[in-house]
Amino acid sequence: MRPPLLALLLLGGLSLSSLFAQQTPSKQRQPAYKLQRVRFVGSTRYSEEQLLSASGLKIGSDMSAQDLQKAASILSESGGFSEVRYRFDGGEAEYQVADNPDFVPCVFENLVWISDQDLLAAISRRLPLFNGKVPLNGNLAANVGKQIEGILKEKAIGATISWMPAATLNGPVNSIAFSAATPRVEISDIEFAGASPSQIPALQKATAPLLGSEYRQTMLQDFSKNSLRPIYMNQGYLHVQFSKALATPIATTPESAKVKITVPIEEGPVYHLKALNWPGSDILPAAATPKLYLLKPGDVVSQDLLRKSLNNVGATYVARGYMKATIRGTPTFDDAAHTVAYDIEVVPGDAYHLRNLEFKNLSDAQLQQVKQVWKLKPGDVYDPTYAPAFLVKNRPSLRALDGLSAIWTQKVDDEARAVDLLLTFRSGGLLK
């Protein structure tokens, strides 16, 4: 007689082992079937060989219903699949799987005793479902952490591995970060490969706070981008590149590991300004812009001065009520001459208007004096620079306010394109 057809469906990483335990008491002897063939259908991420290895099934061995269910549970609980189905027909098993799309890369933050490439290869040999990425649910990430501990133990490093999701500020999870919680990996020394001797003092000064701190690969990448790169960009090294830093262990104890960090730098050439090109507009004629620029043709291009120059152009629009104006300078490089020209573009957006105006904590006489001098009225195009400029420029005309200080606050209603302005006065200090 042909053995009965068995089938199972697992969804979302749910194990149904308890259900089988109810249907098949543990003490009851289960029939065994010779497993002659296994097929895996539906995955584009994994090969049939990888899935067979991960499942624990062995061709030619005796299989029970519990063994087949266990294999399905292993696949489902890994988190790699949103659905796992199987059917068995007297020797041949077929598993139908649906890949989980929510996989993210693994980042190795401070595992300085082995290269990322070697570590990835070693984990892949131990975990058939690992290919450098892990799902956001399931137990695959935890199993990766266990395997890393075993790999490092073979190198006589007794490390405790932790892992956690990583994301940019207010963004989705974009990786899983694996770190050695113990030993604590500390930065003992930092050197800069490829840096000119004249740049070393500034680089050393910037990185001095990192000495003795805990090493994290992504932290150092962010530091290079936000703290080291501006050193070069403000000297005209507009194509400077920072490669991935190398961490070399100096000494390791069960409690701590000292590492030397090497930061590879490709400085590139220094660029000079060829031109700042502004076509002009009704709000800002082209002839009026040179006085706003902090960079002149022939100057070394400092990104800080370039940014301030562009902000000066944008501030002209903001003062005319275009509070959400955006400005950009598109570069055109002449790599042979080491010059760069910027085409300036402003997207003004909608103009905002003053909706409500209020002065607080003034007597009638003081309020009357302020209103005589104040020119920005409700309904006018709003100028955010008016309030602070008014209080400074009109001080001689505001003698009734002697002995008072003031702060101003604005509440912006983006939907109505309107601004409510409040000036609050108090005793003591100067107008500000």
Offer a concise description of the structure.
The protein has helices at 17-23, 48-55, 65-77, 116-126, 140-153, 200-207, 217-233, 303-318, 364-373, 386-393, and strands at residues 6-11, 33-34, 37-41, 62-63, 81-89, 92-99, 103-108, 133-135, 160-167, 173-182, 184-193, 241-242, 246-252, 256-266, 272-277, 326-334, 339-347, 353-360, 404-413, 418-427. It is an alpha/beta fold and 432 residues long. Strands 1-5-6-3 form a four-stranded mixed beta sheet, with helices on one face.
Describe this structure in words.
The chain is of the alpha/beta class and 432 residues long. It has five domains: 94 residues, membrane protein fhac (Ubiquitin-like (UB roll)), CATH 3.10.20; 80 residues, membrane protein fhac (Ubiquitin-like (UB roll), Roll); 81 residues, Ubiquitin-like (UB roll) (Roll); 76 residues, membrane protein fhac (Ubiquitin-like (UB roll)), CATH 3.10.20; 75 residues, membrane protein fhac (Ubiquitin-like (UB roll), Roll), CATH 3.10.20. The chain contains ten helices and 20 strands. The chain has a four-stranded mixed sheet with strand order 1-5-6-3, covered by helices on one side. Helix 4 packs across helix 5. The radius of gyration is 33 Å and the shape is elongated. It starts with 5 loop residues before the first strand and ends in a 5-residue tail after the last strand.
